[in-house]
């Protein structure tokens, strides 16, 4: 990998070196490094583009890194990655995509991730998106995430997109069985004329299942965001969705938290708040010696931490 | 030394111009503990905000350590060594107590230094240092964290705007102790507190009484306190209650 690609790797996966455990590195549409372990097997799909990741039942404290980088202008790809996680696992999966586009043509990566989480397994999933480069070509990421959770499983998803991605349409669907638990933490900052749409549809299908979907976002300059999260309660379950946003400059945000209860024992809550940075917060930090711009940065960094 | 020269401040209220501070001139000497008291609406908080640059005086000038700071911004005044503790401390989603103390100190202070500031205001550091300064903190806790941010800045002039407002009696007793400790500290620091509380007035070197936007009295504690004790300018903790009882009798 070249210096640009390595920098992208650092941004999306905090990777400074080859990670321990299983990994698959994809750069400009090709696999440039792969490692399977005794418990985690990564194979290329026989049909179409993408990989299958199979994690053996009982695999604990292991990780899989599957970062993707694009540094060629004009590259467009759709990749299917399927994760089959056995029963009683406890694993960390780090994905993420970095695009550096210095050219005139748009670069686009659409990653379709499907997770089949086995009974009583725990998964932590981290996905970061990052864009750089000063070309006119757009940096586009349209991830689709599907999560199918078996009884007693839990999944914590951290989705971060702070800089440089011009256009995103993220769609996440999840279906949960008995006592399964899904936690989503999304952090998003858009600037310039960026556009970001994030849609969630979480179905709590069996008793004891729960979901907590929280998004914190900042829309600056003339960027646009749409957050559309629907939790569907089909059993005795609990669901919470929250969208908390700071709006700045000429930014625009549409927040659509939604709930659908199809069972009398479904306990569902949603919250949404959009507002600019409070004047008194700026003043407080200015009395501590920060300039107005520095105060703004501190407030945003804290909010998106 | 802080000198206020002919400070006035007016605001529009229902289309009418209201003078909140009227031609105030006073001097706050270095390293003194000064309490500004007076009836509500007398201009105390406004005056403190004018000194910190949060409100802009409509007339007059402010001299701080020989420098005219009238036209200086909040940030510039803060960097010259003026600290301000808000009556209603501000909450921040995501910023932790440690973040705020680091911002206040203006340098990447170590955890133990940050903890020391918290201990100074009577908070057990390990319970608080990584907490977010958000709605999960009580009024009394926020107030003490607010004071800790001013201490962390190592200011030359610290302004406290009604520190007793909005806290319960238990927190109030702790707060008094914090101010007594500040008073005893050998740091070269001038402290100006806006307060009605007798126990805070009692530890003052100097008392200034503001009423109707003007300085009504200014002098040493021994001189002023006997004149105002038991009045609404110097209330015990239960002033409002006893007033109520008298009213009913």
Query: What characteristic shape of chain A results from the CA principal axes?
Result: globular
Total of helices of chain A:
3
Q: Kindly report how far apart the N and C termini of chain A lie.
A: 30 Å
Tell me the total number of β-strands of chain B.
10
> How helical, in percent, are the residues of chain B?
25-40%
CATH topology value of chain B: Rossmann fold
Distance between the termini of chain B: 48 Å
Low-confidence stretches of chain B: 244-249
Strand content of chain B: 25-35%
Query: What's the total count of β strands of chain A?
Result: 21
Q: Using the CA coordinates, give the radius of gyration of chain A.
A: 20 Å
Q: State mean pLDDT of chain A (0 to 100 scale).
A: 93
Structural class of chain A: mainly beta
**Overall geometric form of chain B:** globular
- Strand line-up across the major sheet of chain B: 6-7-8-3-9-10
Q: What multimeric state do the chains show?
A: heterodimer
CATH superfamily of chain B: P-loop containing nucleotide triphosphate hydrolases
CATH architecture grouping of chain B: 3-Layer(aba) Sandwich
Report the total helices of chain B.
10
Strand proportion of chain A? over 45%
Instruction: Please identify the structural class of chain B as seen in this structure.
Output: alpha/beta
Report what the structure shows.
The complex is a heterodimer of chains A (305) and B (249). Chain A has one domain. The longest helix of chain A is centred in the C-terminal third of the chain and has 12 residues. Chain A contains three helices and 21 strands. Chain A is globular and about 55 Å long. In chain A, helix 2 crosses helix 3. Helix content of chain A is 10%, strand content 57%. Chain A is mainly beta and 305 residues long. In chain A, strands 1, 2, 5, 6, 8, 10, 13, 15, 17, 19 and 21 form an eleven-stranded mixed β-sheet that branches. A six-stranded mixed β-sheet of chain B has the order 6-7-8-3-9-10, sandwiched between helices. In chain B, strands 2-1-4-5 form a four-stranded antiparallel β-sheet. The N and C termini of chain B lie far apart (48 Å). Chain B is 36% helix and 26% strand. In chain B, helix 3 packs parallel to helix 6 and helix 4 crosses helix 6. In chain B, a hairpin with a 2-residue loop joins strand 1 and strand 2. With 249 residues, chain B is of the alpha/beta class. Classes of the chains: A mainly beta (305), B alpha/beta (249).
